[in-house]
Write a structure and sequence with these properties.
The protein has seven helices and five strands. The two termini are about 30 Å apart. Helix 2 packs parallel to helix 7. It is α/β, with parallel strands linked by helices. A five-stranded mixed sheet has the order 2-1-3-4-5, with helices on both faces. Helix 3 links the parallel strand 1 and strand 2. The protein has one domain: CinA-like (Maf protein). InterPro entries: CinA-like_C, CinA_C.
Length: about 180
């Protein structure tokens, strides 16, 4: 899966969204996005593709901590102890988005897009992403360069790449062996 990351990251957003749709249809998967610093960019990219209503459930733009708690069930204590830009929060965002939407796979993004808001521990460009479902999540911290637009664009592309990688690591429906 990871060997394909560089090739995927070289693709434009529209191509990534198209490939995500193909992977969802081939596997009977549905996806949702729980976004903070990307402000709905992932949902927008996915829904640029005709027919995306067949696999895209919903999108959550939970910019404030209160919205993360209210819409996705992120515990206030988790936000207080780890901050919104953390592994624990994006994992909880994924779990909550899958529980609420019924999607089989979610991505969550929370970061510091800038130009303000950074700290020594979490400088501008720090973005946590997670993928998974209501039971299991995998999170990574990325550090993106550039201005606010560049950080948000890189986070959006990383989110799509991660969804594609996870889906393409599973066999397509027609490739699955029949149960005995």
């Amino acid at each position: 899966m990871k060997g394909n990351t560089a090739a995927l990251e070289a693709l434009d957003t529209l191509t990534l969204a198209t490939r995500l749709g193909e992977a969802c249809r081939a596997r009977g998967a549905s996806v949702t996005a729980a976004e903070s610093c990307t402000g709905g960019g992932v949902a927008h990219a996915i829904t640029e593709i005709s027919g995306s209503s067949g696999y895209f459930e919903t999108g959550y733009v939970t910019y404030s901590n209160a919205a993360k708690t209210r819409q996705l069930g992120v515990p206030e204590a988790t936000l207080a102890s780890h901050g919104a830009v953390s592994r624990e929060v994006v994992n909880a965002m994924v779990a909550g988005a899958c529980r609420d939407s019924g999607a089989s796979l979610a991505v969550a993004i929370s970061g510091v897009a800038g130009p303000g808001g950074g700290s020594e521990a979490k400088p501008v460009g720090t973005v946590w992403l997670a993928w998974g479902d209501s039971m299991a999540q995998e999170a990574v911290c990325r550090h993106f360069d550039g201005d606010r637009h560049a950080v948000r664009e890189q986070a959006l592309r990383a989110a799509l790449v991660g969804l594609i990688e996870r889906l393409e690591s599973e066999p397509a429906i027609q490739e699955k062996l029949p149960e005995r």
